[in-house]
Amino acid sequence: MDEATLIRFENDRISSRQIDELIGLARGLVADGMLNQQEVEFLQKWLVANGAVWDQPVISTLYKRVTEILADGVVDQIEISELLDTLDRFANRNFELGETLKATSLPLSSPAPDLTFAGKTYCFTGTFNFGQRKHCETVMIERGAMVGGLSKKTDVLVIGVYATDSWKHSAFGNKILQACELRDKGHPIVIVSEEHWVRHL
């Protein structure tokens, strides 16, 4: 092997070991079903110290999310819930690194409708590449939309880009199933991917 190949092989080996270590760390953090600020800060420090794995899309998104959560110095319950869901799926290898949602396995509205915002009510579920859920909601409010939990008044449910074939068993699966039930009963709710939503911003 030439030197360049040896370096690439060594880097791949280190990256693989770090990912395995992160999976173990994630399993430890979600074991009791809770997270506190100290644990989130520890996770951030680990990610900073192991920057070699940032080229993995899911890990770079995780780092971005953790940094956003800690930016205001306070970790609230909504942020903890979102991060727990992400770490739990990562710990159980429920998605491959960099895997994004599969339109064929998610009950997205077809054809995907054109989206408008003013006067519409949006609900967000899952893990978003765009940012934390509150950031997605802020963008909608700025455009004249309303945001909130899923209800009969919801016009659009947006599913975060990191989802898998096993979405029915995920923490956000119930909300998707409820939206499908509303749609089946004739409520004019549409279900779209984060990708589709972003294209309309």
TrEMBL record:
It comes from the Bacteria. CDD domains: BRCT_DNA_ligase_like. This is BRCT domain-containing protein. It comes from Neorhizobium petrolearium.
